[in-house]
Amino acid sequence: MYIVDKFIPKDTWFHFQNKFNASTIYWHFIPVGNAKYGLCGGMVYTVNDYFDASYSIPAISQAPTQEQFNDLLEYIKGRQVDACFNWSALKYLKYMMTSKETDCKESLEAWKGIKDSLDNDELVPIGLVKVKSYNPANIIYNHQVLAYGYDIQNHLIRIYVYDPNQPLKDDIKLSFIDNDCDRFYIETDVSLRPVYMFFISEYDAKIATLYFI
Fold first, then answer.
1. pTM of the model as a whole
2. Residue 83: is its pLDDT beyond 80?
3. In whole angstroms, how far apart are CA 74 and each of 9, 173, 194?
């Protein structure tokens, strides 16, 4: 099993779950969502930010609120906007409507990029498509995780990820058979909802305003 250098599972990600109180999310002063529906993208990007900056993750066990640790909450909300208002959002909409063959080909292509980045000791935010629908409102049923390691046994690939919904588990993974679209199926510990395909989420580091506790 290969793990990104200096990344220690559980010690380098948030210990609180992706469950937040109601709090409006703004994009250029325009309300675009609410934290109560989850901030998986913001949490993933923030963990990536802290790691890239070699900063210790805030050691709190409850999700930040407007009353406690509001600066951290606002930072995560801002990164949620960054995670959603980029090309990744369009990818979710696109892949919510694609065929199994396309899902396989695109996922296997994404795996190549994920492996290259991990081999260079870079964490990789991954978008998980968990719903098939022509209704864009269903984009909220998708998810985002952070890849930090992998394991290869013959053609069986396991990508180890930080899942904001399960922060106390360090064995969450995506498993699939490489180079075989006839048998392509993603086995995962992420949730009960199936994962149809995955892609690399576009991430730009942001380290200037990290919040310390």
1. 0.92
2. yes
3. 25, 29, 31
